[in-house]
Amino acid sequence: MHKNFKNIDKVIYGRGSFNQLDVLLSEKRAEHNRFFLFIVDHYFKGKELEKRLPVKPEDVLLFIDVNPEEPTTDQVDQIRDCILKKKGLPSGIVGIGGGSVMDIAKACSLMFTNEGSSSKYQGLNLIKKPGIYHLGVPTISGTGAECSMTAVLTGPEKKLGLKCDWTVFNQVILDPDLISSVPTDWWFYTGMDTFIHCVESENGKLNNAFSHAYAEQSLKLCRDVFINPGCGQNAANDEKLMIASMMGGLSLTYSEVGVCHALSYGLSKILGTRHCYANCLAFNHLEDYYPEGVREFRQMLVKHKIVLPQHLSRTWTEDQISQMASVAYNLTHMWLHAIGPDWKDKISHESIKNLFKRL
Ligand code: NAD
Ligand code: ZN
After folding, report:
1. pTM assigned to the model
2. Burial state string for 24-38 with b = 16 or more CB within 10 A and e = fewer than 16
């Protein structure tokens, strides 16, 4: 079976495009109980962007602190229950922030119309009914959450996305002005998520002309942002990074991620390490699988003076390493892509433990 993926319905791109948000929402305000739910990264509380939010008196504005934990099923359930109780069904949701806030907005959109806890729906196509209108505004670039068909949540049993066609945003606004305030370390880690998405998408069995075209262009933009002359965090590169992020996300949608993401999920689930940082920690030791990508990655680390901790595994117990290896081993679709149909002959729980011990 060939993949049949849903793309974002509409995208606006360009400096200052955030100003069009009010007009976009006005077209939807007659729906349901005639109010919008704004979910905004806590960083923007009291900042200039807060004054620019087109929030009307009937709307609900929630600032969410995404540190230190990534989004959880409980968090999404609570937002949904509280809003439904107080105001009923919103006309739509606006999510303004990074992958964390965008995933919360995507998940809430689905959970407003699907009964019970969001933990019931972690997986592929488990959602029963379409969600409500949802619009995403990334303020940090790299995860591709702005275009992906998944909303990643940590639940009581697993860290897994609510994945279906209805998860995808109806509208996205890509305004490069909004990512200029990202601290350099986050800019690097989250940007590297894109780089790693592309390297993994390209180096595996599911790569095809469609995913390759996106990855090739995204990698070109990543190199301009992180390694070529003129690289660094500046306005021109912010324009490129936003597009690289989206294209990296589209590439892996038509292909798959690989070894690094499998390990990264293990780190996040067992130790709570954040996605993009966990990817950087793991990727740095995967030269056997991605020699060229890791070589470039290390050059970028040096260029931007990013120092990753070494010998982390010495602080982990054997049991933790074993649990991380189990999480990684169970991501069969990633191994299938990265290694091939005979991956079980080449990869074992023990060999994954050894990969973790490199960290
Ligand atoms: P994030 O949303 O976790 O935010 C990282 C930090 O940057 C936070 O401290 C936040 O407050 C801050 N920040 C965001 N925008 C800023 C700005 N403009 N100025 C200053 N600070 C700003 O970051 P992320 O790396 O984009 O997202 C990680 C999350 O994305 C994880 O929860 C991960 O599971 C998820 N993810 C989702 C997908 C998907 O396809 N849905 C893919 C990869 C990762
Ligand atoms: Zn990723």
Report:
1. 0.96
2. bbeebeeebebbbbb
Which helix (H) or strand (E) segment holds residue 213: the answer is helix 209-226
Look at ligand 1, atom 27, and give the residue with the nearest C-alpha: 99
- What pLDDT score does 159 carry? 84
- Ligand 2 ion: residues within 5 Å (CB): 193
Backbone angles phi, psi at 229, to 5 degrees: -55, 135
Quick check: 30 and 91 in contact, CB under 8 A?
yes
Angle at 19 between CA 15 and CA 23, to 5 degrees: 135
Backbone angles phi, psi at 319, to 5 degrees: -65, -40
Report which ligand 1 atom has the smallest distance to the Cα of 65.
Answer: 11
> If pLDDT is split at 50, 70 and 90, which confidence band does 47 have?
very high
From the CA of 147, how far away is ligand 1's center (Å)? 14
Nearest by Cα to 280 from 185, 211, 154, 213: 185
Position 231, amino acid: C
User: Domains, the chain, ranges and CATH?
Assistant: 10-179 (3.40.50.1970), 184-358 (1.20.1090.10)
> 99 CA distance to ligand 1 centroid (A)?
4
Amino acid at 33: N
Per-residue pLDDT tens over the stretch 159-176: 889 999 999 999 999 999
Residue whose tokens read 């504005």:
61
- pLDDT digit string (tens) for 117-143? 999 999 999 999 999 999 999 999 999
Instruction: Quote the ligand 1 centre to 97 CA distance (angstroms).
Output: 7
Q: What integer best gives the mean pLDDT of the chain?
A: 96
Q: How far is CA 77 from CA 61, 72, 89, 106, 243, in A?
A: 17, 9, 14, 12, 32
Tokens encoding 116:
């019970």
Ligand 1 surroundings by CB, under 6 angstroms: 41, 43, 66-67, 70-71, 97-101, 103, 139-140, 142-145, 148, 150-152, 178-179, 181-182, 186, 190, 275-276
